[in-house]
Amino acid sequence: MKSALAPGIRLITSFSRDSWYRSFILFLTFLFYTAYHLSRKPISIVKSELHRNCSTVVRPADLNVTNNATWCDWAPFDQDNYQTLFGVLDNCFLVAYAIGMFFSGIFGERLPLRYYLSFGMLSSGLFTALFGLGFYWKIHSLGYYAFIQVMNGLVQTTGWPAVVACVGNWFGKGKRGFIMGVWNSHTSVGNILGSLIAGVFVSSAWGMSFIVPGIIIACTGILCFFFLVEKPEDVNCIPPQHHVIQTVICGILCLTQGVMEFSLCLLFAKLVSYTFLYWLPLYISNVAHFEAKEAGDMSTLFDVGGIVGGIMAGLVSDYTGGRATTCCVMLLAAAPMLFLYNYIGQRSLGTTIGMLLVCGGLVNGPYALITTAVSADLGTHESLRGNSRALSTVTAIIDGTGSIGAALGPLLAGLISPTGWNNVFYMLISADVLACVFLSRLVYKEAQGWCGRAPRVRG
């Protein structure tokens, strides 16, 4: 009598070879972009250490200082305009990222994705570590840190178009919103891990808050070089069903199929998301009077909410077929929640936790949906017909436009915050409303489809 297979082996053999490869690629690309975001996060955690309230810090007995108010700060961020200087650092990265993104999609179409991603992660690891080495080399030049941020912003643009193109090569349209909603949690996971890792070192030696993430992303670059499979055909797997026509991005597509609307919506959605990414720990530290590590740890709740929000946005949009409507509803709900968080969010620990989770879900849900499922829908639309690498360019157009907002948000926060945090939140609420305005035409078309007046068109 033939013995029955063990349950675990039966489970393993129930998946086809193609399924195993697809799962492996999804896991690898998740890991890669987690590392990209992990390496971006330390600057927001370290800000509250570079400029502190020195009156609350115990001064070593053998330390002779000339300025009691700023003795514990790191020059040049020991000045009264430290928030503006932090804004400069943020924008050096984000402006370079926004500009580089428009070119990154072109390179992503023409270069092997394995080499392109490996180069990007190794380079990002180098520049992230160089920022941290400024602590050990005792560098106090704003120009040094600004240059590192510019270079890091440029090389980080290798990540998003390439990983989305790779996932697009392996996965078709079935349940795309849900699959990419789960997969896109790498953004929040990276932010959380980056915050926690940076928080371990921030109070003792903030340089390690950059060096350790730099080493991590460099190691994932090596992993990419040895294991990434760009296309199913490379390992004799069956490619997913895509539309097969010509590889051109035409102005008609931008005007009629939603690229322009979603790009402009993402500009304002990303403005809000990245303002929280770069300024939330400092806001919590200033308003709720947490220490740098505690504020960094608390800020991770915003990203935990973002994971749930991204998955829910994908599920709802898959079920309804309304990508634009899903984004619009979440953005409209986010506006009053941001108002409430600013006014009552710090009253108690429970309130803070609850509001951060809800705000994170509503703010990051639309951002996640647009940069993943929407980009993939448009990048493989029948109007493009052909080489799926067009997805890399469409993704770069959408995310590049969104990155302009990512650069504007932290800059405006740096300029506005000296007048009061209330004004920063009014700016964020206005951005959410504007994001909805740009989706109004697509929401109207989707509503017509549901009412039976027109064929339902996703995206």
UniProtKB/TrEMBL annotation:
Major facilitator superfamily (MFS) profile domain location: 28-447
UniProt keywords, alphabetically: Antiport, Endoplasmic reticulum, Glycoprotein, Membrane, Sugar transport, Transmembrane, Transmembrane helix, Transport
InterPro entries in alphabetical order: MFS, MFS_dom, MFS_trans_sf, SLC37A1_2, Sugar_P_transporter
Principal cellular location given in the protein's record: endoplasmic reticulum
Membrane-spanning residues: 20-38, 84-103, 115-137, 143-171, 183-202, 208-229, 250-280, 300-317, 324-344, 350-370, 390-412, 424-444
PROSITE patterns: MFS
GO molecular function, one term: glucose 6-phosphate:phosphate antiporter activity
Reactions catalysed according to its record: D-glucose 6-phosphate(in) + phosphate(out) = D-glucose 6-phosphate(out) + phosphate(in)
Pfam families, sorted: MFS_1
Membrane topology: Multi-pass membrane protein
Subcellular location: Endoplasmic reticulum membrane
GO biological process terms on file: phosphate ion transmembrane transport
A single GO cellular-component term on record: endoplasmic reticulum membrane
Recorded family membership: Belongs to the major facilitator superfamily. Organophosphate:Pi antiporter (OPA) (TC 2.A.1.4) family.
Protein name as catalogued: Glucose-6-phosphate exchanger SLC37A2
Species name: Seriola lalandi dorsalis
Species lineage: Eukaryota, Metazoa, Chordata, Craniata, Vertebrata
